Amino acid sequence: MVTLWCVLTLLALLSPEAFGTNAGVKVKVTQKGLEYGRQIGIAALQEKFKTIKIPDLSGSESVSPIGKVSYSLTGIQILNLGLPESKLGLVPGTGVSLSIANAFINLHGNWRVKYLRIIKDSGSFDLAVSGLTISTTIAVKSDDTGRPAVSGVNCAATVGQARVKFHGGASWLYNLFSDYIDKALRSALQKQICPLVSDAINEMNPRLKTLNVLAQVDKYAEIEYSMVESPAVSNSSIDLSLKGEFYNIGQHKEPPFSPSPFSLPPQDSNMLYIGLSAFTPNSAGFVYNSAGALSLYITDDMIPPSSPIRLNTRTFGAFIPQIAKLYPGLMMKLLVKTAKEPTIIFKPNYVTLQVNSTVTAYAIQPNTTLSPLFILNVDASVSAKIYVTGIKVAGALTLNQIDMTLGTSYVGPFQVKSLDNIFLMVLKVAVIPKVNARLQQGYPLPAIGKMNLVNTQLQILKDYMLIGTDVQFT
Ligand SMILES: *[C@@H]1O[C@H](CO)[C@@H](O)[C@H](O)[C@H]1NC(C)=O
Ligand SMILES: *[C@@H]1O[C@H](CO)[C@@H](O)[C@H](O)[C@H]1NC(C)=O
Ligand SMILES: *[C@@H]1O[C@H](CO)[C@@H](O)[C@H](O)[C@H]1NC(C)=O
């Protein structure tokens, strides 16, 4: 019994639910992306270092042959600093390493000494610190909301040379003091660097927290972009696995299908690659279909006036004589409704949608009652063009062909085939433009902060589409 229980527990642990789900969306940050990150990071660090405060130093030293010398160094300020050399590298399994070399800081301050009880002297000094090196590792993880989070580990900072130049005062004094001052200032400086580096790393987290883990799409749907596992850091990229799933707003019901595993190709000419698997649009289809949002009444006013085909019993009576006989001189109305969620298929350079729907035709009685005439099963094959607009992905559909079979007839038997052209026309002029108007508004991509996409390309590959892009933060 215990053994069985153990086995079951083990199986439960190994099941996909417990082990994390497959990603619907994958994001790859390349070396080029990291390079952009380095530039932003170094600029932030430079600002951070400007806040370095060297406290006033004072004390006394016994200096032979004059005896006790009291001194103070005050008003020390940073005049200039630079981080001319820095490198960001990937640390597989952990995150990234940041190394800074040949950094420099120039400081200015005042000195004051008192010795032999009555002699006072004062002046100013300049301190040039150079050859500063900093190295740290930034661990990249997932926080408990599925957003990326970073933390600094293993920071080390060393100050290379420090050169003090005194202004005013007696030169013999400088020599006595320069060593001491040098050491004291260096250590005051060195102590502050790693905590500031750590602060700067932690300050990236509020930015990373702006990842739209749950992005509202419209009144029906929201899309979840939380990470389903910790970021994977390899020697060439950081790879994030995101859920990429549409949900009904509020009630998160899983669709009867799940993402198939996929992996991004080793492309690296852009900063960022976003792979959206067919699962993501298919989960959208599931949500909209379940919400009843994929249905539309078509009335005659939606057919261009120039069309000889009208939605009335006269036009349809030409193909199905019973209609003209039973319902003479009436206008008609069609209800187009998906029978199940549409299925999107990504093939290299090609996107198709299989939409299985029903069309119910009604005659509109003078008292506005709808009399059903027939129900057709309409399986439509649709091709899609997908593009990126802003930080959204949008699309446009073209109807290729339809395959119709009779569901129910309320007017006796008739040849369904004879209606092919009418329905193809009606769907093309009345349904597709409505759907395209919605698709054109787009759906949010995963994004952080105020991010713009530039040099964006979209490729359709087997089972997913790949967006390669550079980013700019404003
Ligand atoms: C990067 O990792 C891959 C796979 O682990 C390995 O084959 C390759 O040699 C590594 N490249 C470098 C430059 O370390
Ligand atoms: C949808 O239509 C296609 C093409 O006619 C067909 O192969 C498929 O079985 C249909 N699916 C359902 C669930 O009816
Ligand atoms: C509307 O007219 C039809 C046909 O004349 C009739 O069968 C139906 O009962 C009427 N409905 C109402 C609500 O009056």
Extract low-pLDDT stretches: 4-19
Name the CATH superfamily classification of the largest domain.
Bactericidal permeability-increasing protein, domain 2
- How far apart are the termini? 62 Å
SSE-based structural type: alpha+beta
Tally of separate helices: 9
Q: Which CATH class of the largest domain applies here?
A: Alpha Beta
Radius of gyration: 35 Å
Task: Assign a percent range to the helix content.
Answer: 10-25%
In CATH terms, what is the fold-level topology of the largest domain? Answer: Bactericidal permeability-increasing protein, domain 2
| Global shape | rod-shaped
Ligand catalogue: 2-acetamido-2-deoxy-beta-D-glucopyranose
Number of E strands: 23
Determine the mean pLDDT: 90
What key attributes describe this structure?
Bactericidal permeability-increasing protein, domain 1, Bactericidal permeability-increasing protein, domain 2, 2 domains, 7-stranded antiparallel sheet, rod-shaped, binds 2-acetamido-2-deoxy-beta-D-glucopyranose, disulfide bond
Ordered list of secondary-structure elements with their pairings:
Blueprint: H1 2-14, H2 16-19, E1 25-30, H3 31-49, E2 57-63, E3 67-82, E4 85-91, E5 95-115, E6 119-142, E7 148-158, E8 161-167, H4 171-202, H5 205-208, E9 214-216, E10 221-224, E11 232-233, E12 237-242, E13 245-248, E14 272-277, H6 279-290, E15 295-299, H7 313-317, H8 321-326, E16 331-338, E17 343-347, E18 350-364, E19 370-389, E20 392-409, H9 420-439, E21 443-444, E22 451-461, E23 464-473
Antiparallel strand pairs: 1-12, 1-14, 2-3, 3-5, 4-5, 5-6, 6-7, 6-8, 9-10, 10-13, 11-12, 14-23, 15-16, 16-18, 17-18, 18-19, 19-20, 20-21, 22-23
The protein binds 2-acetamido-2-deoxy-beta-D-glucopyranose (3 copies).
